[in-house]
Write a structure and sequence with these properties.
single chain, 475 residues, alpha/beta, Aminopeptidase, Alpha-Beta Plaits, six-stranded mixed sheet, 19 strands
């Protein structure tokens, strides 16, 4: 237990060294940054200002820039490697050498980001903007915060002569935002350089610290993920002139099926992680919501029970209760004066772990209730078993959290989104989402307009991130 505490302390602190919330009332120290704080900001700025949009940007310069910083700080060539498996695609693997007494830990972050259009934002998304106590920019939260934290702290640890009882590996990889569809990111590293990233366990994105009214209310640890899988819905028709409309219209048929889908909910299911999530969340909610949660997790309530209906009205809770399928894209027709010959929609499903994929498609066909709507699966699902809720790991994280975020309970979560942790789990590397990034639970801007991170969450941790002393306490 004590050895595991030291491992988790080192790993969590490496993630969290930029994010302690020990001084909530203090303003960000914009005018009096230490050298370490300025280094972290410089790295962060450099990453944000390299356009790494998955489809149109380039992650190779980002990987190369981080490698250059590590090498300039004193890391050897063999301990900092950049791989470019395809044009505009880059991965970095860096290693802080320990004593080798135990198997390494892996810290994973992705370099690619989703698109951001200047006309949609109030600031330039590809400049790191300091404004109103926040850092603004695409990727500030997802996931260049973690990448910057890892690189800045590896440099600090090397400079301080810190030598843990195992190697600490940092992997910054590409194409996470498209689930590594082309196998150029984490899958490529697992296939071609497993020896460089093999670890006892990994820490990844997916487990933020939740704030409400500026105070920490929970510290999440993601142990499982829903399965992301999309389907194309298509209706074909012979069409004709729009002056001679018929009842058999491809757009109307598709729209009718989508309306039926919008009114459907998959049955609710709980697993080990979601049950624990709701048990602890009930302690943080108001009287009515807490009562609804306890009613739902007490057994198998009637699907029409008011408790389940009220809880399902909350999108965050609904995503933890069941599989979801939602229309995300729509197209149809070919001319304003012609009846549509084809209408298509894309439906994205987030499937509960363990739920058979074939059953989800069968449910879609049944709910659409129209044999003229063809349903075609897009791609293959990435299935992975949850990482076990080991009491030792959860306890060690709780001990560290008590120092960084006093009073915030540890809440295991199942991610409604998807990360590359599923590939690591399938490769036999247990993976836990624990970013250490604190943010307002009611102001989530990841993938959206004006993505931002509180500056004080970035800086306060620099003062309490003296991890070697903390490790020694539990060794």
């Amino acid at each position: 237990m004590r050895r595991l505490f030291s491992v988790i302390l080192a790993a969590i602190a490496l993630v969290s060294a930029l994010v302690s919330w020990t001084s909530f009332g203090e303003p960000a120290r914009a005018q009096s940054r230490t050298a370490q704080e300025q280094l972290a900001v410089d790295i962060y700025k450099q990453l944000v200002e390299i356009n790494t949009v998955t489809a149109t940007g380039d992650t190779a310069p980002a990987a190369g820039a981080m490698a250059a910083r590590l090498r300039n700080a004193g890391f050897g060539e063999s301990d900092v490697q950049v791989f470019t498996p395809a044009p505009r695609k880059g991965n970095l693997v860096a290693r802080l050498r320990g004593t080798g007494a135990r198997k390494p830990i892996l810290l994973l972050a992705h370099l690619d980001v989703v698109e951001a259009r200047r006309e949609d934002w109030s600031v330039d998304p590809f400049n790191l903007i300091e404004k109103d106590g926040y850092f603004y920019g695409r990727g500030t939260a997802d996931d260049k915060f973690m990448a910057a934290a890892f690189v800045a702290n590896l440099i600090r640890y090397l400079q301080e002569g810190y030598k843990p009882d195992r190697d600490i590996i940092v992997a910054l990889e590409t194409d996470e935002e498209i689930l590594d569809r082309d196998a150029l990111g984490i899958q490529w590293l697992l296939k071609n350089h497993r020896d460089l990233i093999d670890a006892e366990f990994a820490l990844n994105e997916g487990g933020p610290v939740g704030l409400k009214n500026g105070k920490p209310i929970r510290n999440s640890v993601q142990t499982s993920e829903k399965v992301s899988l999309s389907y194309q819905l298509e209706v074909k028709n012979r069409g004709g002139h729009s002056s001679l409309p018929t009842k058999d219209n491809a757009i109307y048929r598709l729209a009718g099926g989508l309306v039926r889908l919008s009114n459907f909910s998959f049955p609710f299911k709980l697993n080990e992680t979601t049950r624990a999530y709701f048990e602890r969340t009930a302690e943080l909610e108001g009287e009515q919501v807490a009562a609804d949660i306890r009613s739902v997790i007490s057994g198998r309530p009637d699907p029409a029970s008011l408790s389940l209906v009220r809880l399902s009205a909350n999108p965050v809770y609904n995503a933890q209760l069941r599989t979801t399928c939602v229309a995300t894209m729509l197209e149809g027709g070919h001319a304003y004066n012609a009846l549509p010959q084809i209408a298509r929609a894309t439906v994205n499903c987030r499937i509960m772990p363990g739920e058979p994929v074939d059953e989800v498609k069968a449910t879609l066909v049944r709910v659409l209730a129209d044999d003229r709507i063809d349903v075609t699966q897009i791609g293959e699902p990435v299935l992975s078993a949850p990482s076990a809720l080991h009491e030792e790991i959860m306890g060690a994280i709780a001990k560290v959290s008590a120092e960084f975020w006093p009073g915030a309970p540890i809440v295991p979560t199942m991610s409604a989104g998807a990360t590359d942790g599923s590939y690591l789990r399938n490769a036999g590397i247990p993976t836990y989402g624990h970013s250490g990034l604190a943010g307002d639970v009611d102001d989530v801007r990841v993938h959206g307009k004006d993505e931002r991170v509180l500056m004080k969450s970035f800086f306060d941790g620099q003062e309490v991130g003296r991890i070697p002393n903390a490790v020694e306490e539990f060794s």
